[in-house]
Amino acid sequence: MRSAPADQSTRERIRDAAVLRFARDGFGASIRSIATDAGVSAALVIHHFGSKDELHAECDERVLAEIRGAKNETIDELASGQGILHRFAAADEYAPMLGYVLRSLQDGGPVGRTFIEQMIEDAVGYTKHGIEAGLIKPSLDETARARYLVLSALGSLMLEMTLNPSEDPSDISGIVRGFLATSYLPMIELYTQGVFTTRRMLDEYLLYVPDPPQDAAAEPPSE
């Protein structure tokens, strides 16, 4: 997560400590451990949030807001011609957020499912932002594309963690660095160049889709 401001309130300090603790240890982490990380008493955590479930919910909001902000900033930078290599260098800064997302995915259940669905909804929003900025091509089904991209990205990271487990599962930054070292090039290549040299496969598939989605974008004539 981004560096905390010097004037951060006690409530915000507890929340950010909880995000880090949940990312490292999962949502079974105790209130006491979070309180220790934040430098407060367990009673003060309960005073501010009422319960661990409420703290969990506020952490969800914080992480989702951070992801939305980072995605929209990246789109604006690319659309204005700025470089984004500094974001690659700051991978450690975003590692706790990614770790938190993975814990939500592993946790499953209604809370985890709601969190991932909100990620997908947010992805539709910042993808629309990218289309309006002239950076992203429109899709025949924006929601379906956003869902696929979010689930593909999370699934790839989950598989990487499963097939090549870290010696220290709590080292979220190390896990993220290892994943990005092997994934950045093919990921950027796919996003910028694609795979096929023709859209013939898409044209053939569309022959079997009787009713295009309501949000279907205008497509150029096939080659």
From TrEMBL:
Keywords, ordered alphabetically: DNA-binding
DNA-binding region positions on the chain: 30-49
Pfam families, sorted: TetR_C_25, TetR_N
Stored InterPro entries: Homeodomain-like_sf, HTH-type_TetR-like_transc_reg, HTH_TetR, TetR_C_25
Bilayer-spanning residue ranges: none
GO MF annotations in UniProt: DNA-binding transcription factor activity; transcription cis-regulatory region binding
Annotated Gene3D superfamilies: Tetracycline Repressor, domain 2
Ranges of residues in domain HTH tetR-type: 8-67
Signal peptide stretch: none
PROSITE patterns assigned: HTH_TETR_2
Descriptive protein name: AcrR family transcriptional regulator
